[in-house]
Recover the amino acids of this structure.
């Protein structure tokens, strides 16, 4: 039977007694009132008594818990001691088994050998300590010398500072006029130097301008020489044959065109019109002025031919097209070592078609390329890039274009002539509606004629050249001459400035000399101070050299001391290791020699540890029993408090029901008792309120049997409460006896 069940059954025992109390209340109200007050006092005393019992039980429980914790710690400690003693015993047993005469003798021998090692290591430590002592002595001496040298250096430095101060004072004694004169001389010399540099710069500009004039004059002369031969004339028969072939490139038309072309003796014409002129200066084909002359010359030749052919659209020439031509030839011929003709004209690599495609994509335009033998011809010999003149270049352009017309059959299939005479297309490729020509020579001396379709987007037609070659050449010469004149004028101005500056220098020197003569004493003082300063500086340098030498010696001594100290520490470490090993070997000998005593001691310690563990375990079990009893007693005491509190609450409620709300009602005690029986619903409500104030007690009431109608249920609960009032003392004693048995 559990505790809760037992409490509920005990509460039901007082029903008959409660009924009797109600009957007595009906008979005499005054007597009932007195009984109720007495009952209230009794229940309150019961609550106080049971709470004191709870406090005592709680104290007993706490003491028991402390005893259990202490006993548990003792058991843990004793268990650890058993484990340790067991390990020691196992070791002693193993030591006993190993303690044979042979092992003892071997261990003793090892001790002797190790003692020799220790002695040797100790001797090494002693010897190294002597080395360290000697090195320390050397280091101390070096330190003293370095300290002395440092003091000497400080003194010498102070002397330099003093001499510097004396010189400053002596120089300050000179008149401000002398200082001003010296500054004037310095400024005059600086101005003269600047003027001289300006003269040199302007002279270089004049030289460059003269070279530009000479180059422009050469272009003018070359243009003047060839201006009468800047056209190539085609016969009517040739034009007709070429048109027939381009309209229908059949074998018959090709043969007819080839037959007509043979009648043009352009080789003889070249030799007559272009004569060698050794007086012309060497030029760079990539020079912008030279490129302009070549491209304008080539475009004029081509446009004259297109006019004879009956075409009205002309090719153009521009600086942008020339720049693009130079860039293309460098990237796809020079940088790639691409020799278009080879050495014989027939063993070359031909056009770089992949390069043309790539460059067309880069510029977003259409590109066609014609190439000629350029500086390498079989008519007038070969001119190298290092020796070529503008005359050679113009000759090459004329020769290439003439060859494209009259010697372009065979494998070329007149493709060069086709590129010159097509309109809106070149070699069958559309997109050539605004053709600009760029001319460039590769590093092998071959000429490249790049035909670009210029658009507003690619700007290849920008910076266009005038096609009046004679005027352009003359303008180039005029501009160069103007530049030369300006450079000469600037040179003249700078030369004059230089003469003025030099005169100012002479004047400043004279002024300074006069002032120096007039202040000879001050100058002598300055000279003496300077001599003193130089002497102090010399002494300082000597002291510095000595200091550096001593510092180097000290550093060397420090390094040596550190090295020998490290060796000493290593020797000491070796000695410590040897001693530790010797102690270990000696301990082994001692263990083997005293194996019996060690085993006996270990056995005794183990047995004692086991005995201690047994005692500690027993103590723990006893403490746990006491803790269980204290816990049970605490539970009973807490239940008794709850019961006492519940009885006090019911007594208060019954008193309120019996007494009523005013003095007149007390005269109707019999009626109140009857009302208590029949009007159970009001009492039930009051008890429910009290139960809400004490949740735990209410929970116990909630588990009472519920039978019959509402009025019967309320009356039964009231009777139970009255019965509990009469049984307070007896119930507590009964419960305690049962639970602590």
């Amino acid at each position: 039977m559990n505790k809760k069940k037992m409490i509920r059954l005990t509460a039901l025992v007082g029903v008959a007694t409660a009924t009797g109390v109600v009957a007595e209340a009906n008979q005499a109200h005054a007597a009932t009132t007195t009984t109720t007050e007495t009952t209230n006092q009794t229940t309150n005393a019961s609550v106080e008594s049971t709470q004191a019992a709870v406090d005592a039980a709680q104290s007993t429980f706490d003491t028991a818990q402390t005893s259990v914790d202490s006993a548990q710690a003792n058991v843990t400690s004793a268990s650890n001691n058993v484990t340790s003693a067991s390990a020691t015993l196992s070791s002693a047993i193993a030591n006993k088994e190993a303690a044979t005469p042979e092992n003892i003798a071997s261990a003793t021998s090892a001790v002797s050998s190790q003692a020799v090692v220790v002695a040797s290591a100790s001797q090494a430590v002693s010897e190294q300590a002597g080395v360290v002592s000697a090195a320390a002595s050397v280091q101390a001496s070096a330190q003293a010398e370095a300290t002395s040298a440092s003091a000497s250096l400080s003194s010498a430095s102070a002397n330099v500072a003093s001499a510097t101060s004396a010189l400053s004072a002596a120089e300050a004694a000179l008149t401000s006029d002398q200082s001003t004169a010296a500054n004037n001389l310095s400024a005059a010399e600086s101005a003269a130097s600047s003027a001289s540099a300006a003269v040199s710069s302007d002279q270089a500009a004049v030289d460059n301008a003269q070279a530009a004039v000479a180059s422009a004059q050469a272009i003018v002369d070359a243009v003047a020489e060839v201006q009468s031969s800047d056209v190539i004339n085609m016969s009517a028969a040739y034009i007709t044959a070429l048109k027939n072939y381009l309209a229908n490139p059949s074998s018959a038309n090709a043969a007819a065109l080839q037959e007509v072309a043979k009648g043009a003796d352009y080789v003889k014409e070249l030799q007559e019109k272009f004569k060698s002129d050794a007086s012309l200066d060497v030029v760079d084909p990539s020079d912008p002025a030279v490129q302009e002359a070549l491209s304008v010359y080539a475009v004029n030749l081509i446009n004259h031919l297109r006019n004879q052919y009956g075409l009205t659209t002309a090719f153009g020439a521009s600086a942008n097209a020339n720049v693009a031509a130079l860039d293309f030839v460098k990237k796809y011929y020079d940088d790639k070592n691409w020799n278009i003709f080879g050495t014989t004209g027939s063993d070359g690599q031909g056009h770089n078609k992949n390069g043309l495609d790539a460059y067309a994509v880069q510029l977003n335009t259409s590109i066609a390329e014609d190439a000629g033998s350029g500086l390498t011809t079989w008519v007038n010999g070969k001119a190298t890039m290092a020796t070529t003149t503008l005359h050679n270049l113009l000759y090459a352009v004329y020769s290439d274009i003439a060859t494209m017309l009259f010697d372009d059959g065979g494998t070329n299939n007149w493709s060069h002539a086709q590129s010159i005479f097509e309109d809106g297309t070149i070699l069958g490729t559309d997109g050539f509606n605004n053709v600009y020509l760029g001319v460039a020579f590769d590093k092998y001396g071959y000429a490249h004629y790049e035909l670009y379709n210029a658009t507003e987007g690619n700007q290849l037609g920008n910076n266009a050249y005038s096609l009046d070659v004679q005027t352009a050449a003359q303008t180039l010469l005029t501009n160069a001459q103007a530049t030369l004149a300006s450079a000469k004028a600037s040179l003249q101005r700078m030369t004059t400035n230089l003469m003025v500056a030099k005169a100012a220098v002479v004047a400043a020197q004279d002024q300074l000399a006069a002032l120096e003569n007039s202040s000879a004493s001050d100058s002598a003082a300055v000279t003496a101070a300077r001599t003193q300063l130089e002497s102090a500086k010399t002494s300082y340098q000597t002291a510095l050299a000595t200091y550096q030498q001593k510092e180097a010696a000290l550093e060397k001594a420090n390094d040596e001391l550190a090295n020998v100290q490290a060796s000493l520490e290593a020797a000491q470490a070796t000695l410590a290791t040897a001693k530790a090993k010797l102690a270990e070997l000696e301990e082994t000998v001692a263990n083997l020699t005293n194996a019996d005593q060690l085993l006996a001691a270990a056995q005794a310690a183990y047995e004692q540890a086991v005995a201690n563990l047994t005692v500690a375990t027993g103590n723990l079990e006893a403490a746990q029993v006491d803790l269980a009893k204290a816990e049970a007693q605490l539970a009973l005491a807490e239940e008794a408090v709850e019961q006492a509190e519940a009885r006090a609450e019911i007594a208060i409620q019954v008193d309120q029901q019996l007494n009523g709300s005013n003095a007149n009602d007390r005269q109707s005690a019999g009626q109140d008792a009857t009302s208590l029986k029949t009007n159970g619903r009001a009492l039930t409500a009051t008890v429910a309120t009290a139960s809400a104030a004490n949740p735990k007690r209410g929970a116990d009431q909630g588990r009472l049997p519920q039978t019959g109608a509402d009025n019967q249920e309320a009356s039964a609960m009231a009777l139970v409460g009255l019965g509990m009032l009469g049984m307070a003392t007896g119930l507590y004693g009964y419960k305690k006896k049962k639970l602590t048995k």
Summary: The two ends are 14 Å apart (CA to CA). Residues 210 and 484 are 6 Å apart (CA to CA). The first helix runs from residue 3 to 12.
